[in-house]
Specification:
alpha+beta; Phosphorylase Kinase, domain 1; 2 domains; five-stranded antiparallel sheet; 8 helices; globular; disordered C terminus; serine/threonine-protein kinase
Length: about 290
Amino acid sequence: MGELIGHGSFANVYRGNFHDTEVAIKVIKFVSLKDMEKSLLEEAGLMVKLRHPHIVLFMGAGIKMPDLFIVTEFMANGSVRELLDKKEVLLEPEHIKKMCIEACKGMAFLHSRKIIHRDLKTHNLLVDKYWSVKVADFGLSRAMGDTDGTMTACGTPSWAAPEVLRRDHYSYKADVYSFGICLWEMNTRKRPYSNLKPYQVVIAVATDGLRPDIEGSIPSYFEKLIRVCWNDVPAERPDFPKLREMFEEVKCPEPKYSNPTYTKAAPDLQGSQSLPNLADKNGGSSKQFN
């Protein structure tokens, strides 16, 4: 096991090598908690069934106390959230479009397997060395229909759909709402509701219809998609296959670079526009895998 590349409340993530392949190793901190063993077994059991170009590749796991860990492919460019926080990263509208299409492909596959992610956010959209986006972190995912009639409020409040925060019955459309928040982040490079405490976000989103401010710098073609994704009525939100089609129809300006590019001082293309956590469900420090 190599250098520490991410950490959070529940786990540390290390860079490693497995049969001459770079990997990320998420090591659970609380080895004394029996529930962690069950949770990790469920996460590993889910990930092993998911093979898709835009889902982070599961490579193995240790699921017996005290060795609790998950091994995945290494994502060299970290998370989308990390890229957004780096002022030197130039992210053009065409780059955002490409990243969103790839995320939609991953999420469409997940939903086709009747799995709800339940914690989709920019921290869990990881970027490989080729700038390809893949969906990660299935610790809160659940099979649709796997419920006794009650639905637990989960995920991170700033990205959670209002029906989730209200503890209403929810569907895969809750992930679409979360994706709308991600798209807003990619265009503003800001964090949603940064001036509010989590409990304030829960109340305002669930009961008052609060959404992040739509700034004038956000292109109209992205604004339309943001608004349709975070519609308060789940049935009015598109599914991910439809959302992918909508992104593919978007006409962006010709990009200066084919991929996001590190510059000494990236210009602000859209006013305050923007663009990979790992082990912490609430957003710990990381270079890969929330």
